[in-house]
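Here is a tokenized protein:
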Amino acid sequence: MKHRHLGASGLKISEITYGNWLTHGSQVENEAAMACVHAALDAGITTFDTADMYANTKAEVVLGDALRGQRRESLEIFTKAYYPVGPLGPNDSGLSRKHLMESIDGSLRRLGTDYVDLYQAHRWDNATPLEETMVAFADIVRSGKALYIGVSEWTADQLRAGAALAKELRIPFVSNQPQYSALWRIIESDVVPVSRELGISQIVWSPVAQGVLTGKYRPGHAAPAGSRATDGNGGAEMISRFMRDDVLERVQRLRPIADELGLSMAQLAVSWVLQNDNVASALIGASRPEQVHENVRASGVIIPPELMSRIDDCLGDVVERDPAKTVEESPVR
């Protein structure tokens, strides 16, 4: 397992981060979740990402239980706040000082740790002044409850504004967590250049495009039983943007490239995002330990420039590149 610096900081994280969105506390039983976390540890993954809203706080509990007994100094544990948790009261969501101060304490309790390595704003909050949010983050860092600050799905302008306040407050603002894959490249034109300038890395989610880049979905065929595309609890909705025959047909053209590199389609997808030097880590989830073992093989893979160009040619115009799509990822409260 290779490690990379997170932003311009001295913190190193594993190129593959284990995340538990849509799995722990909901789709995967606790015993299976425990096995997946232990498989990640055995594979050399040191970085684990969660959020308080995953399974309405249950995912943090499961992850904390799975990591109990591990040497805390050898791990990088990340979590996030913004989305509603609890009984959905008026202050149970957002990036207000009240919600963040209460959220960090709840996350630490559920995770069974005194601090998180990275505390992230899960989305941009249109209803709270940015200065209020960043001062709260600064107080959380100075209290020792978080070591670094990050965000998720912020636009280039939002990153620039947040970084300016972080610099003024002298707190380490080091990361953004966007969706990014060979099919979803909306961060490349604006977010990545600004992030490089500001010393911010990307920790990318959905590098296999909700499973579409594994090649298991074929044009003109029904989705496999039990796959995410058949999940009525949100999975099918998330993957729907890619479930078009023109996209699926283009994805199948990647198979010879994966074969040439001696990779599975999933490994090709994960290694593709890691070719971007602004990406510090690719987030993977798993419902079985075998999925962890497969995906970690993407760490350290170098895809030659000519094959990167062939991937572009194979996918053609089905790739989404519009940077305005980032705004759609942040709900208006």
The two ends are 40 Å apart (CA to CA). DSSP finds 13 helices and ten strands in the chain. The first helix runs from residue 30 to 42. The longest strand covers residues 76-81.
